[in-house]
Amino acid sequence: MLLCQIAGSSGDRAGDFTWPRWSGRNFLKAQFRLNNTTVDGFHFEPNDFPRSRTRIAGVNLQHDPGYGAVYGLTWLTVLDSNSLYYLPTGDTLPRDGMRALQLRTGYTPAPGKPGPVGKLEWTRQTNVNFAMSAIGAGVEGGWSFARSKWAPTLTYRWTTLGGDDRSTEEFERWDLFYSGGDIDTWVQGQLMKNIHYNSNVRMQRVLGRLRLGPTWRFTGSFSDFRANELNNLGGVISALADEDIGRELLFVSEHTLSRAVYVRMTQGTLWPGSGVRGTLPSPVASPWLVGIVSLNIQY
Fold first, then answer.
1. Domain 25-297 belongs to what architecture?
2. What is the pTM of this model?
3. Could you tell me which residues come within 8 angstroms of residue 64 by beta carbon, excluding any fewer than 6 positions away?
């Protein structure tokens, strides 16, 4: 939810849809492990674009037996950063001094057994230099039919990432930070995340997954997006016409050719809502489409 990809793919860096990159500078980690519980202390500088000169340190606690109940906690602080938050007055606030506390839990059945699946995450971001209270939360639940043909899984997910209410003194817009990752983490829509980012948004999603064979996996999802606040400073669109942002249909096919070769095919369709269309100077054709084929070779 907070640290899925700490390197960017913008500017002269290709591969915007190649999913997480984990290549920060000066990465340091100390780990203590006892059976299924680990405690990590970490420090790193994200290799972001444009470079924000951010430095982050924190602690991560995770209890994960591999299946069944999982529990985790992350606390981190921004030691230094040039990134800014924007206000309607034209003033800015610094990311420097931001702190975040995340609590999470989840459940998955044992491999090959049907049963419930679920995730619950909650995070609050504050700042030592000014009044900030940005909330991000997500809950997902469903069922794994592991013994049925193609082992289908069906889940429903609801998430919210705060927007800044202009009528309050606190800054409430969620700092999207270095979230993202794959569709199982915090990608709020394959196309939507590039238009609206992972901030100031409520999402409802229905996701289904099939294992068509030992080397094939197919995922389909439908998502509905609404804004928490019409003030969207910090996003691609600064002010939204209304809360309706859009709906997205996504299909992902994955095939493992060998232990070293992996193929991924993605097709996304986005119907922009009136909150986005109403801000554009002239009508645009919809839906918006994206198709990607990626080949990953490990060596």
1. Beta Barrel (2.40)
2. 0.91
3. 36, 38, 70, 72
